[in-house]
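Researcher: First entry.
Model:
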Amino acid sequence: MKILVPISNVPDTTSKISFANNDTEFNKSGITFILNPYDEWYALVRAMELKESGKAEKVTLIHVGLADSEPTIRKGFALGADDGVRIDGEGDAYFVAEQVSNYAKENGYDLIMAGKETINYNGSSVGALIAGFLDYPFVSLATKLDVEGTTATLEQDIDGGTQIVEAQLPLVISCAKGMAEQRIPNMKGIMAARTKPLTIVAAGQNNNFTNVKSFALSAGRTTCKMIDENNMDELVQLLHTEAKVI
């Protein structure tokens, strides 16, 4: 079984966010970028566990991005991935999914494992789009995965319990909390990451369907207004005049 793990290069959550060009572009100046935690902690680590158990023969990383994102790919190598592919381009979720699916189609992967979402856009759409392009089954927000032969057994959290799903390979899944535990690269892995093969592939047709008009920072936390438990009239009034539905 060959596993493909799409990964994203995202700003560290401790970074101070700002925008440029009249708030139409994310300002990368001074930003530390990291491997998207959902891709790393859940998708990649579980893929490595499948390889270590003998159920997968190879784990390949794939990233759609520019040359400055290569240190993030090397971080994935340090965790044990065998090799990687960088598709040289940038775009929206549709563009990323199309590039990944084109590469997967040409190279015959049995299982594609993505994190449930990225921590910068939180769109949770790339995995489903990849499955759509490939016409593969898709299981979203999987919390457990095991594979026997060509059958994958997965678990998903649902209201009131857990749902067990069986699907046949080839398959695309998005991985959520519970899929695996975070790993820290050891020195051997870090040294090996320097020499693992990284293939650069030119991006295909630039199909972007998202136009950014402007970015804005969130308002942040506001103060909490406390109401006396016996003052129901004031509470009702404030719910009508000040409360906001999110």
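Researcher: Second entry.
Model:
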Amino acid sequence: MTGYLLRRLGVGILMLLALSVLVFIMLRLTPGDPIDAYINPSAPMSPEALAELRRRLGLDQPLPVQYLAWLRAAAVGDFGFSTQRSGVAVLPLVLDRIWPTVLLMGAGLAIAIVVGIAAGIWGAVRRGGASDLALSIFSSVGISSPPFLTGLLGLWFFSTQLRVAPSGGMLTPGAPFSLWDLLGHLILPACLLSIGHAALIMRYMRSSLLEVLGQDYVRTARAKGVREVWVILKHATRNALLPVITLIGSTIGIAIGGAIFLESVFNWPGMGLLLVNAVNGRDYPVIMCATLVIGACVIVVNILTDITYAAVDPRIKVAA
């Protein structure tokens, strides 16, 4: 296990390096000059002052030299300062926004896992019935609905029309912290984030469980007189969960993308809203740091998924 983890971590570091190179080049290929982010439009600078600022920031160097200089600083945790927030270090700013995003994603994925697995089991058991048809329609609509569409529709319907949920933010401005206030702001975006993932998990769970229910050992358990509920929950569901676990791990990156849209719609103070504002403001240091942090989180989750997969199925062993 130790050798496996070390090898996966090594591969993860190489993937982060490749991601940093890709994002660095893409930012440099965007229209405009990177130095524009450091200039006050209302205070024009002379060509000499611009040249000095470019030299001080290292923007007069070739692109590979600029990247290596950034990489040396990033290796020791120095991602520079935000160009939108004067004097604010990038790394603490990004780390401070992780937990709101983790809270939103964790709640959304928890709802998706519970609802998706339960609905998948129900659909497999009630195959061909009215409820199975209704769940199949829900899965098709949920999978095909992009997060920005469900976010805008949910905001309009539940916050504007029904007025049963706050229209944005993580807490009520000016009010003392309250767990119920936090949950009240969390429940709507978390449920909207979970729709597509719950639909996908339900479809995989239903298909996997139907396949497992046709296996010989399930028929043997039924022939021995085991109650049907225990045949499904104890004998069939555990094996049917294996592809679902892999799916859950692989959807973390998709969930991050959905969280970016929903955080923008609901003004949720997380990584997504920070990244969108950084892109709009051409805040290159924040974009680089936030992208690497998101990439690192996805890599760690994929490693944990592999470990969980091996724990659920004792026949699977990770190779050193």
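Model: Note on the second entry: Residues 98-269 form a domain with the MetI-like fold fold (CATH 1.10.3720.10).
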